[in-house]
Design a protein that fits this description.
The chain is mainly α. Helix 1 packs antiparallel against helix 3 and helix 2 packs across helix 3.
């Protein structure tokens, strides 16, 4: 694969990680109107992936660590892909 393809994959993975972080931060605050609509769109993009980890990692003390585990897995995948470059 070409270095440009690796760069694109890296960018996509980083962007998806950022979406997960924004989704988690938005879940901490009450929302109405357009902000809630943005949150729902983020949920539709992020939840299918994060939900995989939520099935195996229950909330501990009311805190949900599954988004952070999901980000770690993306990071490991990104490192593995970059080593192929």
């Amino acid at each position: 694969m070409s270095p440009d393809l690796f760069s694109i994959i890296n960018t996509i993975l980083r962007f998806y990680e950022a979406l997960i972080v924004v989704y988690v931060l938005m879940s901490w605050f009450p929302m109405r109107g357009m902000l809630y609509d943005v949150y729902r769109v983020l949920a539709s993009v992020v939840e299918p992936y994060v939900g995989i980890f939520r099935r195996f990692i229950p909330p501990l003390g009311g805190l949900d660590f599954s988004p952070w585990v999901a980000i770690l897995v993306l990071e490991f995948a990104n490192v593995a892909i970059m080593r192929l470059a």
